[in-house]
Write a structure and sequence with these properties.
- With 111 residues, the chain is α/β, with parallel strands linked by helices.
- Helix content is 36%, strand content 21%.
- The protein contains 3 helices and 5 strands; from the N terminus they run ββαβαββα.
- It has a 3-stranded parallel β-sheet with strand order 3-4-5, with helices on both faces.
- The protein is globular, with a radius of gyration of 14 Å.
């Protein structure tokens, strides 16, 4: 399943089934349509969430990134981005997404 789903009157969520689809969605313009990339670390396809995040950040350094995992032993020492360990609460997720969006806004303000 791929496509934009309206979450509220002012928020859109773009869903991709794997990292390749997410990267293709980001590449549709010079400026991504999203402010925050949220991905699981373990996912289907050839790329995992860390590779997705690194590739997205290399093309869009302003993009806020939050990763999630249930396998803490797979975490690299320092990703330079927020990683949530499962299980997490909706409040924790909301705070992490808000923080990543604020980092995105700060980056765009400096540019």
């Amino acid at each position: 399943e791929r496509g934009a789903n309206r979450v509220s009157s002012s928020r859109l969520v773009d869903i991709a089934n794997d990292a390749e689809a997410a990267l293709a969605s980001l590449a549709t313009s010079d400026q991504p349509r999203v402010n925050v990339l949220f991905s699981d670390i373990v996912m289907p396809g050839q790329l995992d969430g860390v590779s997705l995040a690194e590739m997205a950040r290399s093309h869009y350094p302003e993009l806020g990134i939050v990763l999630a995992t249930g396998y803490t032993e797979t975490l690299p020492a320092d990703l330079g981005m927020r990683v949530l360990t499962k299980p997490f609460t909706i409040q924790t997720l909301s705070a992490a997404l808000f923080e990543a969006q604020e980092q995105n806004r700060a980056w765009l303000t400096r540019a």
